[in-house]
Amino acid sequence: MSKDWPLFEVFIRSKNGLEHRHMGSLHASDPEMAMENARDVYTRRQEGVSIWVVASTDITASNPKEYGELFEPAADKIYRHPTFYDLPDELKHI
Amino acid sequence: MKDNIQALNDIFQARIDNGESIEPKDWMPEKYRKTHIRQISQHAHSEIVGMLPEGNWISRAPSLRRKVALLAKVQDEAGHGLYLYSAAETLGISRDELFDQLHTGKAKYSSIFNYPTVSWADMGAVGWLVDGAAIINQVMLTRTSFGPYARAMVKICKEESFHQRQGFEIMLTLTNGTEVQKQMAQDSLNRWWWPSLMMFGPPDAESTHTEQSMKWKIKRKTNDELRQQFIDITAPQAEFLGLTIPDPDLKWNEETKHYDFGAIDWDEFWQVVKGFGPCNKERIDARVKAWDEGAWVRDAAVAYGEKKIQKSKVA
Question: Using CB atoms, which residue from A41, A64, A65 is nearest to B79?
Fold first, then answer.
């Protein structure tokens, strides 16, 4: 009869000025408990100043099988990088 | 179809050989998945069961300083168990299934936790030796090929070093104490030394999993290599404490630059693995009791969570 508690993903901002980063996941019966548990599981040593918890089922993830069509087209677009452009060495600050 | 699987296997092995990490949704051989579920869950169960022998001493710690440290250590172990269960779950097994495997004895946990903690000195020896051995294994695993496992290990290793230091400090205090306290520390070392060496698993020649695990970079060192590393680090620490390691054959070998050591009683190891250690039954009974008696709390929390969602929809 027992139901599994849903899974939540935990994101933590380690200090102001930095972004929230994925730290891991945990089970909780609702978002409020997920927040409380995230504090205990992931910030026992002052690892964070802000926490986001997101139900894992609400995340849409890319499929590794689609790696080719998603990411490979960027590989031959080297003109998007500054080093593609030939400029004389004596030129400064550019 | 068979050729197809073979090709996928080859691509997979090439990625491993190339030092790439494997992530949960990547294609992986079924055996890689199963091996990881087994190993990561065994590791998680060890953290969870590992709280029991130490929990035994929280209420009897000799000072507040020792008590807060032990509480923090046990709380860390709960956290480490959770990191590891989450890593195992990325491979498609549920938390409930994992618990069920522990409670029914289908999954193992480290045999070391089937030994009793009979004196306060055991809190010292466990931290120093058991956590010391665990750290050697876990540092290696920070570079394991499966991403979620490696990331869990990085977090665990960061937190674990205080565990070993607080253990050594307990030993140091005892060995600097009265004759009786010294004797307590020595007695504890006598009981924990050999089981700690067994933590690295059977010798390479008899280890069924080592070869494949090395090929898949699950492990990067063999059981015997890790065991030797532990002995080489720990023997001088025992000397520093003025304690005698209970092995008459333990001796520095100038040629190999390693310690030689005596034969390990593998019969004892297999007895404990098979369920006949001093505390196997007690440990599992404690886990099952906690799980069963907590069922109504878990159910109530789910009901409460659902009710809150419904209320917010109505409002």
Answer: A41
Interface confidence, given as ipTM, is: 0.88
B229-254: pLDDT as tens digits: 999 999 999 999 999 999 999 999 99
Q: What are the chain B neighbours of A27 within 8 Å (beta carbons)? A: 95
Query: Which residues, in sequence order, are CB contacts of B58 under 8 Å at separation 6+?
Result: B67, B70, B71, B74
Instruction: Match 């090395």 to its residue by tokens.
Output: B214
In chain B, which residue's Cα lies nearest the Cα of A37?
A: B79
Cβ atoms of residues B140 and B220 within 8 Å:
yes
A49/chain B closest Cα distance in angstroms: 18
**Domains of chain A by range and CATH?**
1-59 (3.10.20.520)
CA angle B70, B75, B79 (to 5 degrees): 145
Shortest Cα distance from B293 to chain A (angstroms)? 13
**Does A45 sit within 8 Å of B25, measured CB to CB?**
no
Confidence label for B101 from pLDDT (cuts 50, 70 and 90): very high
Q: How many helices (H) and strands (E) does chain A have?
A: 2, 3
Three-state secondary-structure class, residue B116: coil
